[in-house]
Design a protein that fits this description.
The structure holds 2 protein chains of 2 kinds. Chain A has 6 domains: 2-39 and 156-189, Phenylalanyl-tRNA Synthetase, Chain B, domain 1 (2-Layer Sandwich); 44-143, OB fold (Dihydrolipoamide Acetyltransferase, E2P) (Beta Barrel); 206-398, Phenylalanyl-tRNA Synthetase, Chain B, domain 3 (3-Layer(bba) Sandwich), CATH 3.50.40; 406-474, Phenylalanyl-tRNA Synthetase, Chain B, domain 1; 491-690, 2-Layer Sandwich (BirA Bifunctional Protein, domain 2), CATH 3.30.930; 707-800, Ferrodoxin-fold anticodon-binding domain (Alpha-Beta Plaits), CATH 3.30.70.380. Chain A is an alpha+beta fold. Chain A is built from 21 helices and 42 strands. In chain A, 40% of the residues are buried. Chain A starts with a strand and ends with a strand. Chain B has helices spanning 3-16, 21-32, 37-44, 50-89, 108-122, 136-139, 174-182, 222-237, 290-295, 312-320, 333-339; strands at residues 126-127, 133-135, 166-168, 187-196, 207-217, 244-251, 254-267, 270-273, 278-288, 304-311. The chains are: A alpha+beta, B alpha+beta.
Chain lengths: 802, 355
């Protein structure tokens, strides 16, 4: 909502200055978004006289003019207007001026080889009218002596742009803003006396609101103004509209706009001669269409509120009029409409047609239903004043009478909500200034809500009015108590934070990517999940919710590779989605590692990152988080986006109830399809929702501290096994041989090739044997040795290598 | 001269000459081995005449000690000279680079969430969460934003179905609804998380982060709200004093509603929070609307309180001097390295939030 202090002063008596005004507007909830000094920019536009014109040597349509702009030297200006001629008084814009219409800043420029210092302006360029043929012609009599002077009258008023919240339609009119200001002590409201207008004629055009289900029009007021002469608006009206950034069009349109801006009363003017018989307000029927004033054709659905005549639709009530009945400069007879449309109906229609207009914006927030008559009177008398003619009596059709709302307000609620006190008298003063009527009733105030405040419906709304006008700065700070009755984080939140930092500490950079992704990328990692589409995505590339974090991670990994970084590890912790319903999402940590280790090192041999790098990161992270390494179970079943032979699946225990993690090389065909240029790309996913939260705290889970001081011995074994036998199987078998004596098992070599039969491999394992009871002697060791060999051979088909 | 004197002189002169470790070891076993020269002399003690025995034994012991000491000395000397020789050879250039190391980082948004949680933990708030996909009821209707209300325009919503029943939450406020439906008052929670609006330009990202706050009890009023936010902002920006302005605004789910601005100034091209004449909007808040309480079966006659919503990304930008919101989600290695935090840098209130 754009206003000026000058316009406010039409409604407000005040001696206060603009800086105070800006502060006060914000303090009462009418936030000042920006302040623009229009006159400073317009100051540059000067009245000027063309002294001489010559044809441009290189262009037939252009002229080179010598222009007197009130300075010693004449200015050379290149101009394309037909009407540029010697002796013409017009408006000159120097280099540096900003053209209001295009918002472009003029510079000294060569036009077809001739340097032009500034520009001569058309009315349209200055937003004075739509007239764009030729430059402005000013009358010699009026402006002959003003050459070199500023064309636009100096206004001290800056353009103030307010952000009006959707609950305050009343402040979409200058008077409403003035009312709030006056209530807060910033000046006094002016009483505006209604001008007495003589009316003789009856309103002869019949108006009917059809009583039907979902009728969006509650009341329709109108009057006829006959024998008008539509013209340009007088200067004061043009200035007023220009001062808030509106473009003057013609007197009739300007007047309806002025009334709308002044008191938030949208009006519509019809050319009465173009209305066939009478006005009918009804619901539209599917397939009806009309051409609106924006020159677009609209096809209507059922149930939209339309204003019609005998021939069909004239316009959409409260949203936009039609071209068929629009006023023009030669319009003689006007029907002026001032109606009340239901906000919900307006909103439905405009949403369906994707149509946004100033009137719609106001009606959907709620127009004062009691302003119908006032608006008609105000506009009609202005039209008579400016365009002449005769005004008819006002006709108001309605299907419902406005009933004022009442609230019982308990004044003690104010302190209960705000924490501070104000006196009853103060409350009454504020409420009265805002337009409330009151009656004192024992403990309560019976308040009648002003018709222009659709936002107020209960006691707490009154509290807001009072505290808002009184000032939020009066609210006293009550310092918080430092006391905690509940733990801050839940178990799973603690796990989230722990894992996040545990993974980062392994050299991964944390990234945050959007929860949506490109369905092409997503499809690579979707596995068997269903695609979850967004109905109205920002762009097709962000059209689906991610089924895996990999899609985004790999896209950004690629961008970083393109930036020339070769060896990097990134991870994200966040949601992946499994369905359309709330809660069908899982929290995942997903990591990606590319390139080499020790690339170009002078000391270490470089190598590609591999599965065992990420396996370590995953395993170490889970162990750090408190999960028992000895219970982990790993196999090689993984989703299809992993390399089938170089990836693994990790369970926290052998019951295999939920997958804790996947890890492995990303499938080479994905790298190929996405054109990822790296030596190696390895990833992992840890599924937080599948990690069982221990019932006991980590401290309680710990078994008694118990170590053996008896001598330990290490024995090495090399087994020949079939290739498909997993190291984990051997380890499991050995650890079960004697859990009291076997304290550690370590694979220290895996070998295939020479001396080993085809399809077999050798796995070398070192076993640490230690007793809690005694130092083991040679024969004890020999026994356990033999037992290990025998058990492994029996259970896995392995053969000890001799 | 007795035998033992001879042995002594012979071996002393051997040991005093140039000699290496294995020669010394040979001498050692020649003298003190099982049948070594000195060892065999000890065996003789029994056969020596009574009157000479004492002196013999004493002389023999002296010679044994003398030789033994010299041998130990010599061994030590040789070992030391070997070490010194090795040290002389083993000089390397320690200015050569160390083995490569990698350093992970925590994203500034995660760090900021941890900072926020740490501050609110101190004054008794606990952390709640809600899903990113919400139903229309929790995101709008329950929050007193009915269908066909212009306030819905303030949220450009991503929908997941044509009926507009399922959507990506436009704010963290639905966590209020979920929390209040699930439990009984009093409530004192914060809820950080991802939020979504179909808005994308220099200053808007279709995904961003908010933290919701909710405190409902018997008598929580606007003074408590002001106190809580004043405390939070001071703690978060780690300043002693903060210039803060409450200004009336409108949110359908709070009444009265406020927006909060903090004072700032630009000094040497850097933003300074808490001083200066410029105002910066950082959050929206208000007293929870009685209609919202009714919707979650909390009696507004007995319970009241406040709620607030803060943009986390913006807080992080202000605190850590980050200019471009879009960069948060761009995953640029250089940016992550520059603005990220060491994983060991966990914000705590005893250590202070930031280093």
């Amino acid at each position: 909502m754009k206003i000026t202090f000058d316009w406010l002063k039409d409604h407000l008596n005040t001696n206060l200055k603009e800086d105070k005004l800006l502060e006060q507007l914000t303090n009462i909830g009418l936030e000042v978004e920006s302040l623009e000094n229009l006159s400073a920019e317009l100051d540059l536009f000067k009245v000027a006289k063309i002294i001489k014109t010559k044809k441009h040597p290189n262009a037939d349509r252009l002229k080179v003019c010598d222009v007197n702009v009130g300075e010693k030297d004449l200015k050379k200006v290149v101009c394309g207007a037909n009407n540029a001629r010697e002796g013409l008084i017009t408006i000159y814009a120097p280099p540096g001026a900003v053209i209001p219409k295009t918002k472009t800043k003029l510079v000294v420029a060569k036009i077809r080889g001739i340097t032009s210092y500034g520009m001569l302006c058309s009315e349209s360029e200055l937003n004075l009218s739509d007239e764009s043929k030729g430059i402005i012609e000013l009358s010699l009599a009026k402006y002959g002596k003003s050459i070199g002077k500023t064309y636009f009258p100096k206004t001290n008023s800056n353009l103030i742009d307010l952000s009006i919240t959707p609950n305050r339609p009343d402040c979409l009119g200058i008077r409403g803003i003035a009312r709030d200001l006056a209530a807060s002590g910033f000046g006094k409201m002016k009483n505006i006396k209604e001008k007495k207008v003589k009316v003789k004629n009856k309103q002869t055009l019949k108006v009917k609101i059809k009583k039907e289900k979902g009728q969006g029009c509650r009341a329709f007021g109108s009057c006829l103004i006959t024998n008008v002469k539509n013209s340009e608006s007088p200067q004061w009206l043009k200035d007023k509209l220009v001062s808030v950034g509106q473009k003057p069009i013609s007197a009739i349109v300007d007047i309806t706009n002025y009334v709308m801006l002044d008191i938030n009363r949208p009006l519509h003017a019809y050319d009465a001669d173009k209305i066939d018989k009478g006005i009918i307000v009804r619901n539209s029927k599917l397939g009806e269409e009309f051409t609106a004033l924006d020159n677009k054709n609209y096809k209507l659905e059922n149930g939209m509120c339309v204003i019609c005549d005998n021939k069909g639709v004239l316009g959409l009530g409260g949203i936009i009029g039609g071209t068929r009945s629009g006023t023009e400069l030669d319009t003689k007879n006007i029907l002026l409409e001032s109606a009340y449309f239901e906000p919900g109906s307006i909103r439905n229609t405009s949403k369906k047609l994707n149509l946004d207009t100033d009137a719609k914006f106001r009606f959907e927030r709620g127009i004062d239903p009691l302003s119908i008559e006032n608006g008609l009177k105000k506009a009609a008398s202005l039209i008579k004043e400016i365009c002449g003619g005769e005004i008819s009596k006002i006709d108001i059709q309605k299907i419902e009478t406005h009933k004022s709302k009442n609230i019982k307000f308990n004044p003690s609620l104010f302190e209960k909500i705000t924490g501070f006190k104000i006196s009853i008298n103060e409350m009454l003063k504020i409420l009265e200034d805002l337009g409330f009527k009151y009656k004192k009733e024992k403990k309560y105030l019976k308040l009648t809500i002003p018709s222009w405040r659709p936002d107020i419906s209960q006691e707490v709304d009154i509290v807001e009015e009072l505290v808002r006008i009184n000032g939020y700065d009066k609210i006293k700070i009550i310092n918080p108590v430092k006391e905690r009755t509940k733990s801050t984080l839940s178990q799973s939140q603690k796990l989230f934070h722990f894992l996040q930092r545990a993974v980062a500490s392994k050299g991964y950079l944390e990234v945050i990517t959007w929860s949506f992704t490109d369905s092409n990328y997503n499809n690579y990692f979707r596995d068997s999940n269903k695609e979850i589409k967004i109905v109205n995505p920002i762009s097709v590339e962000l059209g689906v919710l991610r089924n895996s974090i990999f899609s985004n991670l790999i896209m950004y990994m690629n961008k970083n590779l393109d930036r020339g970084f070769k060896d990097l590890s990134i991870f994200e912790i966040g949601p992946i989605f499994t369905g359309y319903d709330p809660g069908q999402q899982n929290t995942v940590i997903c990591g990606l590692s590319a390139g080499k280790k020790s690339r170009g090192s002078w000391i270490d041999k470089e190598r590609n990152v591999d599965v065992f790098d990420v396996k370590r990161d995953v395993v170490q992270t889970l162990v750090e988080a408190g999960y028992n390494y000895d219970k982990f179970f790993i196999d090689s079943e993984t989703p299809n986006y992993y390399h089938p032979g170089k990836s693994g699946r990790l369970y926290l225990n052998k019951q295999k109830d939920h997958v804790a993690a996947f890890f492995g090389e990303i499938h080479p065909s994905i790298l190929k399809n996405l054109d990822l240029k790296t030596e190696s790309l390895i990833g992992f996913e840890i599924f937080l929702d599948n990690l069982k939260l221990p019932k006991k705290s980590l401290n309680d889970q710990k078994i008694k501290f118990n170590v053996s001081d008896f001598q330990k011995s290490e024995r090495d074994f090399a087994f020949i096994v079939n290739k498909d036998v997993k190291a984990q199987d051997l380890i499991n078998v050995i650890s079960n041989v004697d859990q009291n004596l076997i304290s550690n098992i370590k694979v220290f070599d895996v070998y295939e090739g020479e001396n080993i039969p085809q399809n077999q491999k050798s796995i070398a394992i070192s076993v640490t044997i230690q007793s809690f009871e005694k130092t083991l002697n040679e024969s004890d060791l020999e026994n356990i040795n033999n037992l290990i060999i025998k058990t492994v051979e029996n259970k896995t088909g392995a053969k000890i290598r001799s | 001269m007795s035998d033992i004197k001879k042995i002594r002189d012979e071996f002393l002169s051997k040991l005093k000459g140039k000699i290496n470790l294995s020669e010394i070891n040979d001498i050692k076993s020649n003298l003190f081995g099982k049948n070594g020269l000195i060892s065999s002399q000890f065996k003789k003690i029994g056969s020596i005449a009574q009157n000479e025995r004492k002196k013999f034994a004493s002389d023999l012991n002296d010679i044994k000690d003398e030789l033994q000491n010299l041998i130990d000395f010599k061994i030590n000397e040789i070992q030391n000279s070997e070490i010194n020789e090795k040290l002389n050879k083993e000089k390397i250039d320690v200015t050569l680079p160390e083995r490569t190391f990698v350093r992970g980082k925590i994203h500034p948004v995660s760090q900021t969430i941890d900072e926020i949680s740490s501050i609110f933990s101190e004054i008794g708030f606990s952390v709640e969460e809600g899903p990113d996909v919400e139903n229309e009821y929790n995101n709008f209707t329950a929050l007193n934003t009915p269908h066909n209300h212009p306030a819905r325009d303030m949220h450009d919503t991503f929908y997941l179905d044509q009926k507009k029943e399922r959507l990506l939450r436009t704010h963290t406020s639905p966590v209020q609804i979920r929390t209040m439906i699930k439990d009984k008052p009093p409530f004192k929670i914060i809820a950080p998380g991802r939020t979504y609006r179909s808005d994308s330009d220099q200053t808007h990202s279709p995904m961003f982060h908010q933290v919701e706050g909710l405190h409902i009890d018997k008598d929580i009023n606007m003074g408590h709200l002001k106190g809580c936010l004043n405390y939070f902002i001071k703690e978060f920006f780690e300043v002693k004093k903060i210039k803060m302005r409450f200004r009336p605004s409108h949110f359908p789910f709070t009444e009265p509603s406020a927006e909060v601005d903090i004072g700032y100034e630009i000094k040497d091209g850097k933003i300074k929070i808490g001083e200066g004449n410029q105002w910066l909007e950082i959050l929206g808040c208000g007293m929870v609307h009685p209609n919202v309480l009714k919707n979650v079966k909390v009696d507004p006659k007995n319970f009241q309180g406040y709620a607030f919503g803060i943009g986390i990304d913006r807080l992080a930008m202000l605190k850590y001097g980050i200019n471009d919101l879009r960069a948060f989600f761009d995953c640029d290695y250089r940016w992550l390295n520059h603005f990220g935090f060491d994983p060991l840098d966990l914000p705590t209130n005893y250590r202070g939030l930031s280093r």
